[in-house]
TrEMBL record:
Catalyzes the synthesis of activated sulfate. Pfam families: APS_kinase. This is Adenylyl-sulfate kinase. It is an enzyme of class 2 (transferase). It catalyses: adenosine 5'-phosphosulfate + ATP = 3'-phosphoadenylyl sulfate + ADP + H(+). It comes from Coprinellus micaceus. Belongs to the APS kinase family. Its EC number is 2.7.1.25. Residues 24-176 form the APS kinase domain.
Length: 200
């Protein structure tokens, strides 16, 4: 029989889990136009935190829109549901002590407020990061040719062209990616995390 097993009756609270794993779960919620740099910054930040031996995990298009949310489109109702589910999943990861980084346009203030409230109710920090670049800049970048297609009417409900983007009013962090390098963006987020004790 195995020895040295530690077993405590009752469930482990989020605080206890954080203490045992020596990491605080938090959600870093990136929002911004398509091609503003969310995925690029999220990848770089995830790598940086993993190299600091932090349990960081990114929720992004590929592992959400092709899986969990593959039944959803881009009309307003589907976008609401997309973000609602992502908010729930982010909360679960953060409750499991991960530094969870989400990289979705999440264009509606109300949807982001729902995600924030969900976290606040669970006592999990929610850090909204506005990944900001002017429409003219992101349209010029157009790494996937999506703006071109949207302008040609080939994609409907495209954020910034034929669907709204509601910018955050009071984000915890505001990054102007037309003026800030990816490395500096990661630095800006990391400094915020350190100064708030989230990397202790
Ligand atoms: N400072 C910057 N921060 C982030 N991305 C940048 C920056 N400058 C240029 N880019 C480029 O902009 C594009 C952003 O694409 P991506 O990260 O996929 O955006 P999103 O996930 O917001 O749609 C990439 O091609 C990236 O190389
Ligand atoms: Mg992306």
């Amino acid at each position: 029989m195995a020895t040295n097993i530690t077993f405590h009756q009752g469930s482990v609270t989020t605080t206890e889990r954080n203490e045992l794993l020596k990491q605080k779960g938090i959600t870093i919620w990136l929002t911004g136009l398509s091609a503003s740099g969310k995925s690029t910054i999220a990848c770089a930040l995830e790598q940086h935190l993993l190299h600091l031996h932090k349990f960081a995990y990114r929720l992004d298009g590929d592992n959400i829109r092709f899986g969990l949310n593959k039944d959803l489109g881009f009309d307003e109702k589907s976008r609401n549901e997309n973000i609602r589910r992502i908010g729930e999943v982010a909360k679960l990861f953060s409750d499991a002590s991960a530094i969870t980084i989400t990289a979705f346009i999440s264009p509606y203030i109300a949807d982001r407020a729902v995600a924030r409230e969900l976290h606040e109710k669970a006592n999990i920090p929610f850090i909204e990061v506005y990944v900001d670049a002017p429409l003219s800049v992101v349209e010029e970048r157009d790494p996937k040719g999506l703006y071109k297609k949207a302008r040609a009417g080939e994609i409907k409900d495209f954020t910034g062209v034929s669907a709204p983007y509601e910018a955050p009013e009071k984000p915890e962090i505001h990054i102007r990616t037309d003026q800030t390098s990816v490395i500096d963006a990661v630095q800006q987020i990391t400094e915020y995390l350190s100064s708030n004790g989230y990397l202790d």
